[in-house]
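Example 3.2
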Amino acid sequence: MTGKRSPVFSRQELHDKRAKGEGRFNPEAPAGPDLGPDFWGNVTMVKPSERKGVLLKLDEDLIETFKRLAGGKGHLTLMQNVLKSFADAQSK
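Structure, written as tokens:
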């Protein structure tokens, strides 16, 4: 993780930004480079692995640590990434 978090906006703030034309799409942005026909030539479709829900009871201090590290939201994804990294390291 880079530590850089995306900004968080309320529903009203998002509505106001869109009303002012401050959405993600910028019609005045320069066009990107022409990628050409060979760009997609070696593409392989990768399906994400299916996830399975589990009930996992954890110590409260552990949960609070992950919430702190994730900046509040995203702590479950952070836990998933840590567990996946551990599992990958064990399989090497």
